[in-house]
Every structure is written in structure tokens, then in C-alpha cells.
Amino acid sequence: MMVGMTDTSREKPEIEFPDGEAPATLEITDIIVGDGAEAAVGSTVNVHYLGVEFDSGEEFDSSWSRGESINFPLRSLISGWQEGIPGMKVGGRRKLVVPPAQAYGTAGGHPLAGKTLIFVIDLLGVS
């Protein structure tokens, strides 16, 4: 059961084009600090998210564009999310800048391999 479900009417975020070099390590920035239940390492999370490529600013995925949030067990997600979401509270919005090694790998296999990715995530619920 999801606890602490929050308002899902927040607007799709806009991500400003980053300056400088892509970071070598995961960057976590709270845009809005939530006040609900806290996500833990083993949680299943209900999120709205937007993902763009660091270098081009091109959107590659967005739950907002599909019009519905997504439920995921954290353990099944890229390591950048596995490390970047725990500690986040329901109602929060967090930006993750994820280097390739913590996203889809450094080479081959996946269209986003070798790319640094930026995600803005709204945490709607935790179970």
C-alpha cells in the first residue's frame, strides 16, 4: 500500500541547460523538500519524472508527457536513482545529475549508454 500519496497536479518541470562539464559523480539537489513519508533503499516509489540528456538538453522520457505517474521498486532502477531517491520525502522534488556509470553504462547496449542524464523527480508515494 502506498503511504503519503500527495497532490499530483504539480506542473511538469523545466530543466535549464547546464553550464560546464558533466559531473563525474552523482549530484543530488532538492528543489522542493517534501514533508511526507521518506523513501528508503528497499522502497517502491510512485513518481512523476522528467529525463533529459546533459549534453543536448533533449528530453528522452517523461511521465508527465504520458499523463500518469509510475510505480517502481527502487532496486529495479538505475543505480543513480537507487542512490539518489532514498532520504527523499513524499511531496518533494529532486534533481539528479547521473553520470553514465550510474545510468545506462559507459558504452553500447542502450541508446543512452555513455550519456550523463538529468532527472527531475516528484515523489508522490512510498511503500
Describe this structure in words.
The protein has 2 helices and 6 strands; from the N terminus they run βββαβαββ. The protein has 127 residues and is mainly beta. It has one domain: Chitinase A, domain 3, CATH 3.10.50.40. Strands 1, 2, 3, 4, 5 and 6 form a 6-stranded antiparallel sheet that branches. The radius of gyration is 14 Å and the shape is globular. It starts with 26 loop residues before the first strand and ends with a strand. 31% of the residues are buried. Belongs to the FKBP-type PPIase family. This is Peptidyl-prolyl cis-trans isomerase. Pfam families: FKBP_C.
Properties at a glance:
127 residues, mainly beta, Chitinase A, domain 3, 6-stranded antiparallel sheet, 2 helices, 6 strands, disordered N terminus
Radius of gyration: 14 Å
CATH fold title: Chitinase A, domain 3
Q: Largest sheet, described in full?
A: 6 strands, antiparallel
**H/I helix tally:** 2
Give the strand tally.
6
CATH class designation: Alpha Beta
Average pLDDT value? 90
Number of domains: 1
Question: Can you name the CATH architecture?
Answer: Roll
Give the termini distance in whole angstroms.
Answer: 6 Å
GO molecular function, one term: peptidyl-prolyl cis-trans isomerase activity
Domain PPIase FKBP-type: 42-127
InterPro entries: PPIase_dom_sf, PPIase_FKBP_dom
Family: Belongs to the FKBP-type PPIase family.
